[in-house]
Design goal:
The chain contains 15 helices and 15 strands. It has about 450 residues and is of the alpha/beta class. A hairpin with a 3-residue loop joins strand 1 and strand 2. Helix 2 packs across helix 3 and helix 6 crosses helix 11. The protein is globular and about 75 Å long.
């Protein structure tokens, strides 16, 4: 006699089709441990009747759950929960893309004491000019120079972090009716901003260097209506870690010039100057909006971003700044200034680079060839794989206590080949990172052996 299912049928309150709501409800109950390993799911017809949905809807939902590795079907017996008891205790988060923590209390205390001795009360008693005080823009230009970017402070605008800088760049480049072209896999924050601003977002084919020039040329040739902008991360692309060669950079620029497209260059992951790979803004200053900041190279709490703009776009960018943020934190600017004056910024940057190398070496020791090759050791690594397998890895990893970047969040064009999973390796402690990487390695090992789930997760 078959035992009844312990699950109380429900549909998640989320918007969407009934099959998606059923998947969400069952996924939550399995991952949270309310449905244990081996628990029977309701029969298709019974569940359809109890929820008032079609049998085909149930079949579709169960198929999605099986692809994600949460359930398994046994011919003649039914469908069962396949994930073992979820890992207890705090989750290990490999989804937050920040540098390793190298700032210690003594250094922070010394910085704040130095600021207190030389503080200028005038910087705190009034709003700064749009785009920041002259001195702070000069300091940011000095920082850019260390990255190989010759920046005129008069063309620099300070923003509340690099994310804000991207938002301003999109608005300045495209207005309200333009279009953003980017790689099929790209920064989730840029995808969210483009959609929030109502811009048409098109993800294009890419390879190991990033955006394919021929794909960009075809897309821009078809472009109609509004200004076109091309959003790129030429160095240590997020999420794929690809870096464009000089030939690729020049090819992209030639197409943008021929098709009159603005380039938005996001360079937040460049950790050191590379003269052999000049930034796009160096090669095409007349049409490139250059975005950078301090949170990925110095400290996540140092929310200072910057835009280096072509002269023709400065006025539009200032108008967006007035509408979205009146000022950058004076305290953050004081910290930036102090660190650049006393050499702390360079010390912290080198420490972050050293820690990035250590963490990347650890990741390679666990994951080996599963990691896409990268030109530099950054704060994240990329595991290329088909989209269904990426979604399954995310689901199983979470059930085992490890959070990875949701594959759907970085997909500007899900229909274009080239999916994968991003693992962020900067935020966790080394102990947590070791455990997290070991868990991911176990999942991948079982996949390579032809199993749909890691051995530890099979009921």
């Amino acid at each position: 006699m078959r035992l009844p299912s312990p699950w109380e049928p429900r549909l998640a309150p989320d918007p969407g089709a009934p099959s998606e709501r059923l998947v969400a409800a069952l996924s939550a109950d399995i991952i949270d441990g309310r449905l244990g390993s081996g628990a029977r799911l309701p029969a298709h017809r019974d569940l359809a009747w109890r929820l008032g949905i079609g049998v085909g809807t149930v079949t579709k939902a169960y198929a999605v759950l099986e692809r994600r590795g949460l359930v398994r079907s046994v011919r003649g017996s039914g469908t069962f929960v396949a994930v073992a008891e979820a890992r207890r205790g705090p989750l290990i988060d490999l989804s937050q893309n920040v540098p390793a923590a190298v700032l210690r209390e003594r250094l922070l205390s010394r910085t704040l004491s130095a600021i207190a001795r030389r503080v200028d009360s005038g910087l705190f008693n009034a709003y700064p000019p749009v785009g920041g005080h002259d001195e702070h823009r000069r300091q940011m230009a000095r920082w850019f120079a260390g990255l190989g970017i010759a920046a005129d402070p008069a063309r620099l605008l300070l923003t509340v972090g690099a994310q804000h800088a991207i938002a301003v760049a999109f608005s300045a480049a495209c207005g309200r009716e333009g279009a953003i072209y980017t790689e099929a896999q790209t920064y989730a924050g840029a995808i969210a901003l483009a959609r929030h601003q109502g811009l048409r977002l098109t993800g294009l084919a890419m390879d190991a260097e990033g955006l394919l020039p021929e794909a960009l040329d075809r897309a821009l040739a078809r472009h109609a209506g509004g200004q076109a902008a091309v959003y790129l991360m030429p160095t240590q692309q997020n999420p794929t870690t690809s870096t464009m060669t000089l030939i690729r950079r020049e090819a992209i620029i030639a197409i943008c010039r021929a098709r009159d497209a603005v380039i938005v260059e996001d360079d937040v992951y460049t950790l050191a100057a590379a003269p052999e790979l000049p930034a796009l803004v160096t090669l095409a200053p007349e049409r490139t909006i250059y975005v950078n900041g301090l949170s990925k190279t110095l400290n996540p709490a140092l929310r200072i971003g910057a835009l280096l703009l072509p002269e023709g776009l400065r006025g539009r960018a200032e108008a967006v700044l007035r509408a979205t943020a009146l000022m950058v934190s004076s305290m953050s600017c004081a910290v930036m200034q102090q660190w650049l004056l006393d050499g702390t910024a360079e010390t912290v940057r080198r420490a972050i680079q050293d820690e990035a190398r250590r963490r990347n070496a650890l990741a390679r020791s666990f994951l080996g060839a599963a990691i896409a090759p990268a030109r530099q050791d950054g704060h994240h690594v990329w595991l290329p794989m088909p989209q269904p397998e990426a979604e399954q890895l995310e689901t199983v990893a979470r059930a085992l206590g490890v959070v990875v970047t949701p594959p759907a969040s970085t997909a500007a064009a899900p229909e274009v080949a080239g999916a994968g999973v991003r693992l962020c390796i900067g935020a966790p402690s080394m102990a947590e990172l070791t455990t997290g990487l070991a868990t991911i390695a176990g999942i991948l090992a079982q996949r390579s052996e032809g199993a749909s789930l890691p051995a530890a997760a099979i009921g």
